[in-house]
Each structure stands twice: as C-alpha cells, then as structure tokens.
Design a protein that fits this description.
The complex is a heterodimer of chains A (101) and B (149).
Chain A lengths: L5 H22 L1 H6 L4 H28 L9 H21 L5
Chain B lengths: L3 H4 L1 H6 L9 H15 L2 H14 L1 H31 L2 H15 L6 H14 L6 H19 L1
Helix pairs in contact in B: 3-4, 5-6, 5-7, 6-8, 7-8
The chains are: A mainly alpha (101), B mainly alpha (149).
Amino acid sequence: MTEVNIKEIIVKVYSNLIEENINSWLKAEEALKESKMTPQEQLNLREKIRTVATKISSEFADIVINKGFPTNNITRDETKAIISKLIEKYREELKNDKSSS
Amino acid sequence: MGGSKGYSFQKLTQGGGHGRPLKSGVTDKNQFLTAVSKNVQDQIVSQALGLLISYSTPLSTLAAGLELVKLAINMCVAGAKKYEETGDSNQAIEAAAGVVLDKVKEKLVSEVIRIAVGVAVDGTNIKMNDTSRNIIVDSLSSTVEEAIT
C-alpha cells in the first residue's frame, strides 16, 4: 500500500526553507568578509543550522497535524503565527545558551 | 536550490528584491555580522533566526509553504495510487496533474515548488531509480508552474 508520510514531508520542506534562508544570509558577501571561520568551523555551523531548522520544523509539523492538517485548512496568518513563535522560542534558547559562547 | 535568488541578505537589508526591511532589521543585521566575525555559533544561528522573522518575504514564503505541502501531498497520493495500479510513471504524472489543475490558485516561488514536490515524492513508498525520480519531479514541478503562472 502506498502511503505518504505527512510529517516527514512537512519537516523536510520547512527544514529546507529555514536552512536556505540562514545559509543565504551567511553566504552573503558582507558576512563572508567579516568571517574568520575555518572550513571545519563552517561545517560545524552548517550542522548547527540544520539541527535547529529540523527541530523547529518537527515541532511545527506536530502542531499543524494536531490542528488537522492536511484535512483542515490552516490560514497563512495562522501558519505565520505558529512558525514565528517557534523561531522565537529557539532563538531565545540559543541566546541564553552560554555553553558554546 | 538557491534561496539567495529571491531574498538575499543584501537585498533585504537594502530593501531591494521582494524584501521589505523592518526597523529592527538594521540592529539584527549588525548583531548577525558581529556574531559571524566572532564565530560564536549559537549567536550566529540566533541572529539569523531573528532576521528570518524580521523580514516579510521569508516569513511569507514559510506561511505559503504549508499550502504547497498540501498540494504536493495531494499530487503524490494521486500519482502514487496510479503508479501502484499501473506501474506507469506517465499515468502517475497525469493523475497528479489532475489534482494540480483543481487545486492551484495562486503563484508561488518555483524553487519552493521543486523542493516541495521533490520531498513529497521521497515521502511516498514508490521505489524508483534516480532518473525516474527526476523525470517525475521535473514533470510535476513544470505542471505546477504552468498551472499557476
């Protein structure tokens, strides 16, 4: 029987989108000019970005599936509010984490 | 892929492209650059997340993404059923396209379509080689783009 794993699809799509945005900003000329990171440090950073993006996307998927997605309609405003809240939550966690600073 | 095409850091900070910087953007940008220059990884990711919600275009893309996921799921369920019945990827594509024409109403970013369609195909249990997969993803992506452009 063919099945579609809805959570997996949501997580992959949103992880990709979030990662794309962060990597895009990181690769921008201005950021690169200031960067003193070695290739290994850049690799570690990319891994960190991927981990955070996946965590946000996974929580996002659980929330929207609990709200009835894909059967129930979830508006863009609702989506925006949910994703903003999650991004802010992880942003605060990272700001408060002194272990890697 | 190429997220920088639509909403690069520079475009956003300069107010170019589709992005519309908010007042907080300047501070976020400076904090982001400081974090990068000091190589404090958590701060870099934190500031980048701050930028993500400070600018309208990336957040709008994320908001629209759920509609695209829904579309891709519907397409792939239809395509996967037909593929299961016939073993014919052409018929699978036609079945998936039928869903698209009924559902799509507005224009979305083409690269986002490809990402969503690609992962949706990966999310099914259809076993196929890379070439077949690429043909299906390309065909589905083109169908969506034609339908919404």
